[in-house]
Amino acid sequence: MQDIAEFPQLRMRRLRKADWKRRLVQEHTLSVSDLIFPVFVREDHQEAEVNLLAGCQRYTVSELMGVAQNLEKRGVPALILFPYHDPKQRTQDGVELLSKDNLMCRTIRKLKESTQNLGIIVDLALDPYSAHGQDGIVRDGQILNDETSQVLADYAVLLAEAGADIIAPSDMMDGRIGVVRKTLDTAGHSDVSLMSYSAKYSSTLYSPFRDALGSLQCLGQADKKTYQMNPANIHEALREVALDIKEGADMIIIKPGLPYLDVLAKVKEKFCYPTYAYHVSGEHMMLKAAAEKSYLDYEQSLIEIMLSFKRAGADGIITYAALDVADILEAST
Fold it and tell me: How far apart are CA 67 and CA 78, in angstroms?
């Protein structure tokens, strides 16, 4: 007979023996309050279908109202808006974004009329409006930093006037948070929050999103490496976050999500700021494609991924699967 002294004194499996016990010692939880739903908005006459982003579509303003009310009913705190403009209607300078009656402003005003407790976040970038697909003003082949920041700041004022709760600058231009914050404050919109894409990497995982936005064919073979970050760098991300916080960012986004969990964890640990993971279109589509081939279980894998963001320190998750997650969580209660 084996001596009892040879057995371990601490048995980790004791706390895994039953479902209730596993739940009792669970370190991180996921709820609908962690979710932000990205949506694409179009004019009535434009194409709804998104070829590369399964399960997603471009909504007209009227169609979006039902979606927004459903999100509010389900307890999802916020959505983030992206405008679709037909590539044929875009201009080199993207001047359409400075119209007070542009698609985003009309959408925000209608959402404010239709919902009571749903946060409206608006992505702030030039690429939905530009004929070249870049996030900045281009002159003589160069993407202009400071000129772009001021145009986006003026756009931010229009969005705030329309009723946007949070503005999310995503272009990664230097100093743009400071310019946007100062311009908003000067215009009397000091209560509007800034959610900055502070660590946004130059990733191949954005292609389905660019297709949905209408910028994929505009960008062509060009890239965004002069302003989006090198995937090999992490200390640079910490410097970017520090600068954005100093300039007035209220919230931080790490994009993409899964390949950059280490960045997410370090940012949250170092700065203790509200920090959000963006589970981007390419990540979403890889999961969808694998599930379609029965390589894995979609629902179980989705929840595991969402929990990985929470474990790494995310206060919330921007995900195209927000309603799927809400369904799974509701079914499990």
Answer: 12
pLDDT in tens, 284-314: 999 999 999 999 999 999 999 999 999 999 9
Taking alpha carbons only, the member of 325, 300, 311 closest to residue 27 is 311
In this prediction the pTM is 0.94
Q: Is residue 8 part of a domain?
A: no
Angle between helices 235-247 and 261-271 (to 10 degrees): 50
C-alpha dist (Å) from residue 83 to 39, 183, 232: 9, 22, 31
Instruction: Please give the C-alpha separations between residue 78 and each of 34, 44, 249, in angstroms, as whole numbers.
Output: 9, 24, 18
**Residue 163 sits in a domain of what CATH number?**
3.20.20.70
Strand partners, 37: 79
Asked if residues 213 and 50 have their Cβ atoms less than 8 Å apart, the reply is: no
Q: Which domain holds residue 246?
A: 29-332
**H/E segment holding residue 332:** helix 322-332
Annotated active-site positions, please?
200, 255
Residue 13 lies in a domain: no
